Amino acid sequence: MKNTEKFISALLESWKNESVSYPFMQARFHKFLKLSCRQTLETLFFKVYLNHPLLPDINSLRSFLIPQCRHLYHGISSFLPMTWNFPTTADLKSVVSREVRFVGREILILAINDLQITQKERSHLFHTLQLISPRPEYYQFEKINIQEIIEQIPVLLRKGDLLAELSDFSGLYFTAHELEPLWGSLQRYKFLPEEEAKLENFFNLAIKHQILATLQNFINRNWYSPYAKIACAVYITLGEIIPWAKHPFIRRLLAASYQEAKTLINLQK
């Protein structure tokens, strides 16, 4: 495991520096995937991605993996169903699992649309996509009908942003100092396309974990409330189906934080 981690770190350095050695190291990486797929991908996602400065967010992970799609889809397809084995909010690995499945889905869809793969391979990839779709057994909400939530996700998400205004989520609000990198965008009430990456960087793994844990606690405490169903829909889709930076709940959370921060600034004048 240590040797694999050391190699992947060197591979990332070579990739970032556009080194002449990168194609050779990349070919070796692909060989690792064929010989020891699970160990290689577990090391990449749950060791290197958690700590390496060259993979600070999901966009950098995508940039590294997507160009290698044709060489990765076999290994990714067999690995993705295993990512549901982690408890939903036990630690940062649960957050990484969501990001891995999100990028993995993109890799599988690109492979499915590749005219060079066989119909048998395409059918297998479709099957994998079904396996990694949200299912009731993947979530630990005893008093909630998760199947019903999954079926109603589009309807429930219409009010998903409103959760951010509830006092239960005020503990997630960001201070003016924390919002400083996003202040200009929040003043405009709009994020330009080139600012999306900045927004993705803002939500690091620790913040994402805290948001998911808060949602989970809210659902378990208020299972009888109609808001619990909405919270479930938000919980299931965050970083799994909808990117964090584009999720309506996250956008409203930032807007509420901004308004709160502005109010405090005005009170201090």
Brief descriptors of the model:
269 residues, mainly alpha
Q: Quick summary of this structure?
A:
With 269 residues, this protein is mainly α.
Gap between N and C termini, in Å? Answer: 56 Å
Question: Number of domains in the coordinates?
Answer: 2
Which sequence of SSEs, written as H and E, runs from N to C?
Answer: HHHHHHHHHHHHHHH
Determine the strand fraction and express it as a percent band. Answer: under 5%
Percentage of residues in helical conformation = 55-70%
Radius of gyration (Å): 20 Å
Largest sheet: none
- Report the mean per-residue pLDDT as an integer: 91
Please count the beta strands (DSSP E, at least 2 residues each): 0
**Which structural class matches the secondary elements?**
mainly alpha
What ranges have pLDDT less than 50 throughout 5 or more consecutive residues? none
Shape: globular
**Number of helical regions:** 15
